[in-house]
Amino acid sequence: MAPKKGLLQRLDEGVVIGDGGFVFALEKRGFVKAGPWTPEATVEHPEAVRQLHREFLRCGADVMQAFTFYASDDKLSNRGNESSKKYTCRGINDAACRIAREVANEGDALVAGGLSQTPTYLSGIGKEATQAEFKKQVDVFVENKVDFLIAEYFEHLEEMEWAIESCCKSGLPVVATMCIGPEGDLHNNSAGECAVRMAKAGAHVVGLNCHFDPFVLLEAMKKMKVALDEAKLKVHMISQPLGFMTPDASKQGFIDLPEFPFALEPRICTRFDMHRYAREAYELGIRYIGGCCGFESYHIRAIAEELEKERGSLPLSSEKHETWGKGLKMHTKPWVRARASRQYWEQLKPSSGRPYCATMSKPDNWGITAGHELLKQKTQETSEVEIQTLQALKTKK
Questions:
Q1: Where are the beta strands (DSSP E) in the chain?
Q2: Nearest Cα to 158, choosing from 181, 188, 114?
Q3: pTM of the full predicted structure?
Q4: pLDDT tens, residue by residue, 87-143
Q5: Do 289 and 239 form a contact (C-beta atoms < 8 A)?
Q6: Domain boundary assignment for the chain
Q7: Taking the chain, what is the end-to-end CA distance rounded to the nearest angstrom?
Q8: Which of 69, 111, 214, 372 has the fewest CB atoms found within 10 Å of its own CB?
Q9: Does domain 7-321 have CATH number 3.20.20.370?
Q10: 3-class DSSP state for residue 258?
């Protein structure tokens, strides 16, 4: 059997489709705890992680990204419960790599090891301590012979540069994605500057992931492309947005929305939104196209179906799904059969189904340093309400 083509060769020759969002998908399924968002499921419930990989593979993903989000020792130790003592960076990352490789070998997929922002950086301990946390993960990835590395979900450009440096020491291709939007990072570095500095730090593929919907993220990607072109830097681009619509989100994206994280379902993108996203990303010159939180396997299938001509094939999952609803021609109801067309689904404006539901939300707009004060204020307000409620109950008795 011929060896698999590597990431950079695939990007030079065509399109690479990423996978979707493991953290949110597994939280909904009961395998990840919201708040910590750490991936103990790779050890506790490997079958759940394995099945999700298989769903993405069947729907056209070319990459099985090991479920190692927030799997650094400093993040695991911050969980504040007994289970955090059971698992280590090495144990979780090793299990995640083995599961991803097992499924990747069932197809023509590559395995990526991913690392993300750390509590060590946010604590201000410094570069050496932060990179020590990165090194623990990178060492496990190298031992497991992953095909490339992804430094993802960074809000601070400085920490991203430190992560890229750590990844580059492995000798593997390095992908770098920040979770920022058109306004730039949390230290007011523009999206364009972030792209340029990521490329200069050594990343082979640069772009964005998470925090914003496909179309908001593409606006930021346009700024990145302009800056890279002006700097004459030749790197590939990657986009892995949310599967939720966030036109009303502020600088920190969906985490500022009041629906985060348990009431985001009314915002889920349709498969037809993903057709549009895939086409616009491709036309922008992005060749690594995938998704993050909220992306389910059918979203990835929509990307693969939209890019069928560019890729030369359809995913296995399309055996049970005809593009643009053509399978509805076999429906028993004539008005449903009438929906078996691209024109119908492209023109549809989906309803939320919720009477009097607001079109947009009012983001919390938590600042970098204002968070603790806002939390204190909200806690105080809640306490006052509780006191008033107790007093009312006593009076009633």
A1: 16-17, 63-65, 110-115, 148-154, 174-178, 205-209, 236-240, 288-289
A2: 188
A3: 0.90
A4: 999 999 999 999 999 999 999 999 999 999 999 999 999 999 999 999 999 999 999
A5: yes
A6: 7-321, 372-397
A7: 80
A8: 372
A9: no
A10: coil
